[in-house]
Write a structure and sequence with these properties.
The structure holds 2 protein chains of 2 kinds. By secondary structure, chain A is of the alpha/beta class. Chain A has one domain: 3-Layer(aba) Sandwich (Glutaredoxin), CATH 3.40.30. Helix content of chain A is 43%, strand content 20%. Chain A contains 5 helices and 7 strands; from the N terminus they run αβββαβαββααβ. Chain A has a 5-stranded mixed beta sheet, with helices on both faces. The radius of gyration of chain A is 13 Å and the shape is globular. Chain B has one domain: BolA-like (GMP Synthetase, Chain A, domain 3), CATH 3.30.300. Helices cover 35% and strands 26% of the residues of chain B. Chain B has a 3-stranded mixed beta sheet with strand order 1-2-3. Classes of the chains: A alpha/beta, B alpha+beta. Chains A and B meet through strand 6 and helix 4 of A and helix 2, helix 3 and strand 3 of B.
Chain lengths: 125, 77
């Protein structure tokens, strides 16, 4: 198993909410990534983002792990929730908040921080 | 290009009650697909979208689809 896929797996398994996107929260490079990020922020989720653009291998390895072909991809506690449409839909009908409360605890919004992980270098900010 | 996606979806969901593909920007690479099919009855949203992704695997892989929006529902609700 490559170092890259180990890092991707590590993010999925260990970050409470992981968003694999095009760009960063400061500089979103795609409309669907933006929709997913907005939906997660509105729900007050502690989002850890990974930019898939720096290396095409990131997206390849990610889609192999998840079985999901498109970006963005949202994971909660290691489980794939879906892309932008599903995340938006779940946010709109309240299911996203309910899921976050169930899986992360009722106080998940308290002190929720955003992080960015660079899976090429392994840096986390 | 929308026609190609629609025909792939028709093959995958021959009994669809509603099926259409919209080229969102007119550029032939940003699409909104909407499918209502009994194939989705009782399936979680994630699995419904997986079926659509599978039907469109080729255009997703070869880069024809730059951005895809999916809306699905079963036919019993």
């Amino acid at each position: 198993m490559s170092e890259l896929s180990d890092r991707i797996r590590d993010v999925i398994e260990n970050e409470p909410v992981a968003l694999f996107m095009k760009g960063t929260p400061q500089f979103v490079m795609c409309g669907n990534s933006d929709r997913a990020l907005r939906a997660l922020r509105e729900a007050g989720a502690p989002v850890t983002t990974v930019d898939i653009l720096p290396d095409p291998a990131i997206r390849q390895e990610l889609s192999e792990l998840s079985g999901w072909p498109t970006i963005p991809q949202v994971f909660v506690k290691g489980e794939l929730i879906g892309g932008a449409d599903i995340t938006e839909q779940l946010a709109g009908n309240g299911e996203l908040t309910a899921m976050l409360e169930e899986r992360l605890g009722a106080g998940y919004r308290d002190g929720a921080e955003e992080h960015v992980v660079d899976v090429v270098s392994g840096a986390r900010a | 290009m929308a026609e190609r996606l629609e025909s792939l979806l028709r093959d995958a969901f021959p009994d669809a009650a509603e099926l259409f593909v919209e080229d969102r920007t007119g550029g032939g690479d940003h699409f909104q697909v909407t499918v209502a099919s009994p194939s989705f009855d009782g399936l979680p949203l994630l699995d419904q979208h997986r079926l659509v992704n599978r039907a469109l695997a080729e255009p997703l892989r070869d880069g024809t689809i730059h951005e895809l929006r999916i809306k699905t529902r079963g036919t019993t609700t």
